[in-house]
Every structure is written in C-alpha cells, then in structure tokens.
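Case study 2.
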Amino acid sequence: MSKDCYHCGDPVPAGYHQQVQILGEQRDMCCPGCEAVAQTIVDSGLTSYYEYRTAPAEKADLVPQQLQSLLLYDHEEVQQEFVRSVENSKEVSLSLDGVSCAACAWLIEKQLNREPGVISIRVNTTTHRALLVWDPAQTKLSHLLGIIHQLGYKAAPFEADAQEQQYHRTMKGYLYRLGIAGIATMQVMMLAVALYFEIFGDLDPEFKSYLRWVSLIFATPVLLYSALPFYLNAWRNLKARTLGMDVPVSIALLFAFVASLYATVMEKGEVFFESISMFTFFLLLGRFLEMRARRQAAAASANLLKLVPAMATLEDGRQVAAKTLKVDDIVLVLPGENLPADGEIQQGETAIDESMLTGEPMPVPRAAGDQVFAGTINGDGNITLKVTQDRQNSLISNIVRLQDEAQSTKPKVAEIADVVARYFVAAILIISAGTWLYWMQHRPEDALWITLSVLVATCPCALSLATPTALTCSTSSLGRLGILLRRGHVLETLCKVNQLVIDKTGTLTEGNIRLVKTKLLGNVSEQDALTYAAELERFANHPIARAFREHRSAALKFDRVENIIGSGLKGWIGNDEWRIGQAAFTLDRHPDKEHLLMQCDNRYQVWLTCNAQPIAAFKLDDPIRQDSKELIAQFQSAGIKVTMLTGDHSANAQAVADKLGIDTLVAGVSPEGKLAYLRSLNQDQVALMIGDGVNDAPVLAGAHLSVAMGGGTDVAKSSADMVLLGDKLSRILPARQLALKTRKIIRENLAWALGYNLVILPLAVAGYVAPYIAVVGMSASSIIVVSNSLRLLKENG
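Prediction:
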C-alpha cells in the first residue's frame, strides 16, 4: 500500500524510507526537501504547525535551513500560537539572543523602524525581549526576523520554556569561556611574576623570551575564544555605524595583544598577556553575574506562563496539549490542578487560588457561571470548564504582554541615559587617543597600559543598566501586588501625583448594587415596572443593571434599545418610548419637567418613564468597600487632595462622600463632564483617576495617570494606565511607595554610574589606575547598579 508524505501529502516514492519524528510518531517523507523542512519545524519548536494546519503544505524546495526556519513564522497556523491581531496590525513578543547593552537595543530599533510596515519595535535589554507591531499587508514577519539576524542577533517568538533553555545555553557558554580565562590567568600571572620581578635573579634573555612565548600560548585562547562575545558585539555596532559598550573593551584587548605579540616576536618592549587574560576574566565574571541578576529581575513575568499546564483533560477523558484548546472546548479540572485555560465553570463548586494574579493569598469561592483563569489553582472540587479564550488571548498571556510593553516603553530618564552612554563611548575613544599621544611623548614605556586603563575603566555599562533594571524589578513587584502596568510612564507619573480623582459606584463602593425599594408613580403594577426596567437594563454593562437581572422576562421584548452612556437607556415597543436612568434624562420630554424635578425625592436614584410619563422610581443600595476609608485617609495624610467624581446625583453620593471624608464631591456629571472637570484642574495638579465603568473610559484615557478596577468593564481597562487585578484599593498605596523608591534607586544608580566615571577617568588618564584595577572597577560598578535595583524585588507593599 502506498504511503503519503506527512508534510506535503504527495505519494512517497517506492524505495524512499526517510522519516521525521513529529508529535510523538515517525512520519514518512517523500523527498529530501520535505524532510529538511519538517525537521526544521521540529527543531525550531514549531510542531504546533502540524496541529493547527487545515491542509498539507506545499512541496518544499531545498533552501538554506536558517532561511526556511524564518519562513515558517509566516504560516497563519504557526502564528496562531504567538501572534496577536490588533485592528489592521499584528503584534508579537520576541526573544532576543546577543543583546548586551542599550546600544544593541538602539541598533535593532533603528534598523527595523526603517522598514515599511513596521509600526513599532521596542527592545528591553533587561529581559532580552522585544515587542514588535507590524502591518502584515506591507511586510512579513520572516523578513523582519531576517533583518535582526543580519545584524548579528537571533530572534524568535517568545516562549518561556524556550527562553529558559536559551538562557541556560548562554550561561553555560559563559562558564566555559570564564573557565578557560580563569585557568589561563592563573598561569600567565605566575609567569608575569617571574618576568617583572625576576624572583629567580637576573633572567637570561633566552629564558625571558621563553616565558613570554609560554604566556602568549596561554593568552591566545583567551583572546580568540573567551573574549569572542565582546568582539561580536563590537562588530555589530561598528557595522551599523554606532558605538556600544564593547567597542572600547575590544579595542583595548586587541591593541594590547598586538603590541605584546610584536614585543614577543621582536624581543623588545613590554608584554601585557597577564592584563589581557585578567581583563577578559573579570569582564566575563562581571557579565556573568550581571546576567544572573538581570535574569532574576526578568523572570517574574515569564514564570507566570509556566503556571499554565502543558496538558488538559477534555470532557471525554482525552489528554491534549493545553495550547491547542479552542473556544467552547469543555475540559475537566481535578482538585489541586492548575487551570489550563480561561473559561466559565459549567458544573461543580470549588475554591480557586488566584494569588498569582491578584496577590490575595486566600482562595476565592467559585461556582457554575463564574469566570476563572488559566494558571490559577483549583482547590478541593471537581469542575467542568468551558473555554472562553484561546491561549494567546488569555488573561495570563495579556499580563505578560502588557508587562513587556510597559517595560520596553522607556521613560525620558532612560532615553537620556542611553544617548549619554553612546556619546560617552565616543568621548572615551577620543580621550584614550589623546592619552596615548600624551604619554608616548612623556613616558612611552607606560603609554600602552595607561591607555588600556582609560578604555576599560570608563566603559559606561553601569550607566546603561541604571534605569532599565530598576524599572523591570519594580514592574515585577507591582505584578505581585496585583497591579498590571499598561503604560511605561506609570512609575514616573505616580511619584508626581498630588490629586486623587475617584469614581463612586464599583470603585469606592463594591458595585454589588441591590434594589431596596420601588416607588410606583403610574398605572403599572410593581412586577410589570420591574420587568420593563430589567429588560431595558439588559442592554447596559453598568453595576446598576445587575440589580434588576432577576426580574427579566422572555415574554417582554423591546423593538430597539439605545444606551446613552452616563444618562440611561431608552427603548421602543411599537410607538411607546420607555426610558430608565437619571431623573433629568427620563423626564427630558415632559412638559412640566422643571416642576417634577424639583419634587423628585433624591433618595430614588433610578427612574422609569413611558413617553416621558413617570412609571416608577427605584431606591438602590451599594455597600462601601472595606478599604476605601483607609485609601482616602492615607492619600490625604500624604498631602494629596481627594475628589469623588460620579454620575450619581442622589443623596447617596453625598452620604458616601461624608462617610469617607472626601475633600470635594462632584456629582451628577456625564462622561464628558468628568473629562471637562479633569481638564479644568490647574497645570500643577497631577491627577490619578480611578474608575471601573464604560462611562469612566474617557476620563481614564484623559487623566495624567489612571487605574481601572479589575472587575470593571473591558473598555475601562483598555483605557487605563494600570489595572487593579484584585479590586483591592489599598494596594495603590504600596504601589505609590514602590514608585517613589524606584525613582530614588534610579537616581542612586545614575549618581553612582556618573560619579564613578567622573572620578575614575582623570585618575586613569593620569596613570594612577592599574589595568587590573580598571577592569575590576568597571565590572563592580555594573554589578553594584544591578544589585541595587534588585532591592525592588523585595518590595511586597
């Protein structure tokens, strides 16, 4: 019986027996081309292509493996797993290999921003990730990845496990290079003692030459192998006509080696093999420790994805890969298991541990109809779950994506530091050349080592690390607090806030609104009034609508309904126009409107009318959140004025304001009115707005800084700068303290980095800094900056 090729579907020729293991089985291939492409797909970690594809692939040609690997990323089936569609563009988070400093990030951003179709590219040097947004109609992902590869860096869609493996491979490579440099340094240093101090007495010229040649043999693998990462980074920078941290380091190493080689061969002058070996060893050691520290800072968000299990159990008992789950799939989750996807509980009751999302340690009761999220832990109940989001659009994936976006958006201080660092490298090279010329005229025998000290001691690595490491650490700490950053300016602006503007319903109050009393005003029974109200409120997404939910009736149906955001709803049954909402809105067309409004009992917040005639009024109750009073009191104690901005014009708004001690109450305002109030503030007032509803979206988007409640509407969350995942208002206070501490640490880092360079530069130029002191000082400076930033990871609020 003839077999078909698993890759392209063509018949496999008789006598051809090549196979590739795909999805746990050996699959037949029809030709070397299909075999090469299939193996590339497997080796690239893209076997999900075969799970998602709807038709066999086209017959493959033999093309270079690296190019073929990149072309795979253009397949729609492959992109389903890691690419997110945003209107007319696509967005992907990339893992980068080879990025070592701000100059690398600048180079990648500069080159890709030149390409047609690239909307934005932001590189985070701390996490070694990039956020790329492009127009698929103008360019392909494989082309953009190819440009990054041409620059000398490796890029692939971010996967937590794949980046973890890449990190371990990189660290293992550094350990090999570090080991060789360490062994060579010990040997060369012993020979250097004999050469420089002549502890054996006067050395014969032949023996002295012998020691130099032995030192050359030990130093050569250090220069050619151990120091290779520095040359590669320097070459990338020079090829792109920019200057990075490794340019002066590479010049120093190569300059010293060539001079020493010349002295060894010609048997005259000084050799610096011990300096070369020691330079490389300490540079690698500093880079190794720095990478470990930066890894610790970057791991928090990536580790969230590891909480999603690899496998899921379908309703029929079959085990499938969790990443292949689709919307409407039904899965079973046993006690103690992590949930494999976002979904709605269909059957069963349990308690869900959501601490990884909200920071709240106590499990939350969940039952049929409740929403639950991937990565959270099922308690002691068996539940059946209906998948509502695929993996790419799950809450946990959005958190990681938004954290990447926030971390890669550089504040002004970081952009300034990057520019200063680039110009500082150019200044170092000019100063080094001047130092060489000066000492060649005055003390030529010392010119080389003094120039080497200048090149190495003043490398501005610490300056480029000062801000991004602090921002990454603080973003991770905010994530543990249950606060999700959506914009990069949050930490900067949070320090400047001097005005708190906060919504009432669903923010200061629980949003768990209850119907307390119904007052009939027309010839309609109470049940009918409630049914009309409930059917109109069906079309709203405000907490008030939920208070009428139990009174809905399938027997009543409106022909058409319009939602007037901030005022209410109006609907038509035949020629009758029904309205529900604020009194002024519902009575808008009544001929005696002003008189009726004056007689309105403001204890009743919601009115129902038919053709502008009053039908009923409803009194509602909404409990105040337990931590609202603490939030207001602590903001006021910090000298921050508090304003409650609400569309509620009833007596309840004043009661809430009085109970919480609000400084200013602005009630009964529309969404436009809220935004107008915000714009009316003085220029020196920096406002923090907290809200949750659709009517808060304009003011959330227009505020200096905004927070949306996690239980609020999607529109509010997409408009805000931060999202409070657990609806705990008290967490905003430690977030502000963390922002203040982040600003302090950034200033400390910049002061240390700039101060160190300003002190060490004149000393090195004057010849007071030995080469080994220079390299130790430069490495220690970078490690101090990163370690200082890591203190932010200990902040738990």
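Residues 160-197 form the longest helix (38 residues).
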